Amino acid sequence: MSELLARHRAVMPAWLALNYTEPIEIVSGKGNRVTDGEGKSYLDFFAGILTNMIGYDVPEVREAVERQLATGVVHTSTAYLLRGQVELAEKIARLSGIPDAKVFFTNSGTEANETALLLATYARKSDQVFAMRQSYHGRSFGAISVTANRAWKNNSLSPLNVHFLHGTDRHLTQFAGLSDADYVKACVDDLRHVLATSVSNDVAALIAEPIQGVGGFTMAPDGLFAAYKEVLDEQGILFISDEVQTGWGRTGSAFFGIQNHGVTPDMLTFAKGLGNGFAVGGVVARGDLMDAPHAVGLSTFGGNPISMAAANATLDFVLDHDLQANAARTGAIIINGLKEAAERLPVVKEVRGKGLMFAVELEGPAQASRFMEETKKAGLLAGKGGLYGNAIRMAPPLTLTVDEAVEGLGIIVTALETINAEAA
Ligand code: PLP
Description:
This protein has 13 helices and 17 strands. Helix 3 (59-70) packs antiparallel against helix 10, helix 11 packs parallel to helix 13 (402-423) and helix 12 crosses helix 13 (402-423). A seven-stranded mixed β-sheet has the order 4-12-11-10-7-5-6, sandwiched between helices. A four-stranded mixed β-sheet has the order 1-2-3-15. It has a domain at 61-321: Type I PLP-dependent aspartate aminotransferase-like (Major domain) (Aspartate Aminotransferase, domain 2, 3-Layer(aba) Sandwich). 39% of the residues lie in helices and 17% in strands. It starts with a helix and ends with a helix. The protein has helices at 3-11, 47-50, 59-70, 83-96, 109-124, 141-145, 180-197, 224-235, 287-290, 305-320, 323-344, 365-377, 402-423; strands at 26-30, 33-36, 41-44, 101-106, 128-132, 161-165, 205-208, 211-212, 218-219, 238-242, 267-270, 281-286, 348-354, 357-362, 380-381, 383-385, 391-394. The chain is an alpha/beta fold. The radius of gyration is 21 Å and the shape is globular. The relative contact order is 0.16. The longest helix is centred in the C-terminal third of the chain and has 22 residues, at 323-344. Its EC number is 2.6.1.44.
């Protein structure tokens, strides 16, 4: 065990999961690559944890933060006007597609979801919420309540009355084998049944990830969210799209993940990539919901000048370089390549994803761990996930080049071939 790992184990929580049997310390980064303490370089196919959305040491972001630092104002109070905050809110409100949108900045995705849940439960005067099975929304009381993943569950302390809906669990349930259309119908029938029998008529909201992140990049079939939205609208139930992983063009085909489904949510939440490593999250909500009196209050560090400088520079970079189109282009190379490989490698159970957000499902957690070690050896970082720890999640920076996509695909396929041969 390295000296740093021993010190980590001594003073950090045991549940703070580290990747790899020999965890690495990342000491520098440039472009889409990072270097560890021993000088080994890796293509970062997880973008930190979807945080380094436009790669490492991006001059535009560094200079924007340095300019803000040079003013001497790292933080005063969010009780004063802050130009960067207003400018960023204007851009995000416009991109969200939410009518009359207003933005509240937080420091994390957890806080963003907690805020959205507060707004929704306040608006509907109800503690009842719908969430999706296999979901992950964060680690505060409210966010954990709407999380359906036993690894994070602390349900006995839930402050919310939560019903979990079907939509991403077809292969794990009695719905296995149904066509998309039949599965959507079964899910909607189930939602109507729950509404008729199991809750009172003031459910506050449905919170859902357009592609489930920690759940293993699992996806609802086309048509599901639109069908759910129709039922929710009948009842005045709000739709919260958790875009912490799916925002900013990552899925290639839309700027926010839920826009792939033709659904305009009442609120959306964001975090992770927007600050390109600097902590920034937030909620976008319809004005009438956001302006509810006494709904939330302030956040001391949410929307601070440094985060706003980083986030404005990152978002401008994404838009100026049309990185959504790049995600579609480079993601297709990888996803198509992986699907081709899967046909001849039985150890691969499924390849799924959209744009630069894709996963490989393997037989079990042991294979997933082998994959992580093999790709690490070959110089590529990925993430593990899924309800059973058997999915490999990959979400490279949106700045990934075609050459890097091809290089990464080669490393991944070689690792899968090795694991397949071992399993044979
Ligand atoms: N929502 C989703 C979809 C996430 O993936 C995460 C984190 O992984 C969160 C919320 C929580 O965000 P944070 O870790 O910034 O609190």
